[in-house]
Amino acid sequence: MAPAREKTHLPFSGEEAEAHALAARIPALLIESQRVAHTVAHGTHGRRRAGPGETFWQFRHYDLNDARSGIDWRRSASSDHLFVREREWEAAHTVWLWADLSPSMRFRSTLSRVTKESRALVLTLALAELLARGGERVGLMGGPPFTGRFAARRVAEMLLADTSEASLPPNAKLSRFSECILFSDFLEPVAELGARCEEIASQGVRGHLIQVLDPAEETLPYAGRTEFAESEGRDRVIAGRAEALRDRYRERLGRHRLDLGEMTRRLGWSFAVHHTDRPPEEAVLAIHAHLAGPERDYRYRPPRAAKPGDLEASRS
Hints:
Elements: H1 15-38, E1 46-50, E2 56-61, H2 73-77, E3 83-90, E4 94-99, H3 116-133, E5 137-140, H4 151-161, E6 179-184, H5 190-201, E7 206-213, H6 215-219, E8 226-229, E9 236-239, H7 246-267, E10 270-275, H8 280-291, H9 310-315
Parallel strand pairs: 4-5, 4-6, 6-7, 7-10
Antiparallel strand pairs: 1-3, 2-3, 8-9
Helix pairs in contact: 1-3, 1-4, 3-4, 3-8, 5-7
């Protein structure tokens, strides 16, 4: 079960008002995402193997099946053998994005200047901008992929049209050998999220989970009499001394995060945590490092039975 989340009341009510508010923020968020993308190095993702591309990969001995035009005569001149110059295989692939726009993402404490929703949108649009510049195809889960200089703007337009407030990524049909990047607070039960991620992974898709949290959700800095209310429900809890809950809350959040980490490791996915009081560039750089890293194994790994000692190993 997820930790209780505080409720943030918007200065307006109704779905139409919320849609107008999101539309008003999108241009500013798009500009912010472009600024973030400018600070991160980008380029076509190398596949860590020989193939068509412009980046040097390695020299290897000439084979009778190789064309003579592929011989690197300068390297061969310093040896008694003929060498072929190989380039790294560079190819565009599709990256699917999803940002959680459920009510819980609208939370913001006094420790941060932005809501979780705003930060998730900035990260989504920044990565769309960054990946499109590198020649990749990007799109929102459930929609078509885009390429070119206006890809991020088209993703922003799709976000405006998205009226879903689901806390889980959609059960969308995705292309095989693609990747997906999911932004959410991931405070839902891990069993529900794990089932949805397994459906995505079974399509041959590699995923990256970015947990976006407000710093107050990490530390529970409240003291004295405090009322906690669910942002996606009607439950309310009044704590006479909120500081007395701090240790149990942190322990529960820690167990929840360990379960998330174990779930992603089982699927061969990656998992990272980003706090809204930190620069968005940190998250974008971390994600870009994963995307530009060694070649991925997209084969689906079915859930395996837990073995004694697994939990202890994950805690170390």
